[in-house]
Amino acid sequence: MSDFVQAFLNAEIALASSHLLWIGLVQTMLLALMTVPLGMVAGLLMAVLSTRKTRWVRWPLVAFIDFFRAIPPLVLLIFLYAALPFGGIDLGAWGSVALAFLLNTGAYYAEILRAGIESVPKGQPEAARALGLRPWQVWIFVVLPQAVRNVLPDLISNTLEVVKLTSIASVVAVPELLYQARQAQSITYNATPIMVAAVIYFLLLWPCVRLLSRLENRQIAGRR
Questions:
Q1: CATH of the domain spanning 2-223
Q2: Residue pLDDT, tens place only, 9-47
Q3: Domain ranges, ordered by start, for the chain
Q4: What is the C-alpha separation between 219 and 214, in angstroms, rounded?
Q5: Distance of CA 154 to CAs 8, 140, 224, Å?
Q6: Cβ(151)–Cβ(119) under 8 Å?
Q7: CA 169 to CA 155: how far, in whole Å?
Q8: From CA 206, how far away is CA 223, in angstroms rounded?
Q9: Which of 130, 160, 197, 204 has the most CB atoms less than 10 A away?
Q10: pLDDT tens sequence across 55-95
């Protein structure tokens, strides 16, 4: 047992590597804070456009959303980082990560929000228009609030995945939490920094997981 503690739960090494892990945590939070709002806005725009009846608008969007939901984000990130420079486009590590995450998360948010929009009874927008509301008012005050409420657990679940997704940025040497933990491990020859990083991820995401469970239980109770 002492060997396990020494190799994975060494307090001295955890303290010594805390500054590296702090830098990684800040980078992880910056990635998440950048990706989630941008992905949400892009997803909302695509979701609204994908509900249009015009085929030349809807079908390209559906193909775009399906493509970026299907392609593994790690493959997409490596392609943007390593292949685009051959075409004269060098986004750098941060730019490649930002674009890869935006394309991937935007596609997932778009599909979730599209499902939410389609779950709103058609009679409600029609009634709102009959009352004199303009189209943009119908969307903002009638359709979108109900759509978001109907798919809120899915939105929170996808946001959790986005935070966990930030760990793949280590592949292109963006100094997020996992990258810094691996750097600390290579310096100390000890797995404790990796364990500390896992604990940090847990502390970050566990409140959201509990909130997600409560929302799902509330939705189930509401259907009964």
A1: 1.10.3720.10
A2: 788 888 989 999 999 999 999 998 988 999 999 999 999
A3: 2-223
A4: 9
A5: 35, 20, 20
A6: yes
A7: 22
A8: 26
A9: 197
A10: 888 888 889 999 999 999 999 999 999 988 888 888 888 88
For residue 10, the number of C-alpha atoms closer than 13 Å in the C-beta half-sphere is 18
Is residue 205 packed enough to be buried (19+ CB in 10 Å), middle (13-18) or exposed (0-12)? middle
Please count the residues of the chain: 224
Other C-beta atoms closer than 10 Å to the C-beta of 81 total: 22
**DSSP line for the chain:** -HHHHHHH--HHHHHHTHHHHHHHHHHHHHHHHHHHHHHHHHHHHHHHHHTSS-HHHHHHHHHHHHHHHHS-HHHHHHHHHHTGGGGT---HHHHHHHHHHHHHHHHHHHHHHHHHHHTS-THHHHHHHHTT--HHHHIIIIIHHHHHHHTHHHHHHHHHHHHHHGGGGGGGT---HHHHHHHHHHHHT-SHHHHHHHHHHHHHHHHHHHHHHHHHHHHHHHH-
Q: What pLDDT, on a 0 to 100 scale, did the predictor assign at position 221?
A: 62
How far from the centroid of its chain's Cα atoms is residue 174's Cα? Answer: 17
Which of 129, 146, 149 has its CA nearest to residue 138? Answer: 129
8 Å CB contact between 151 and 117: no
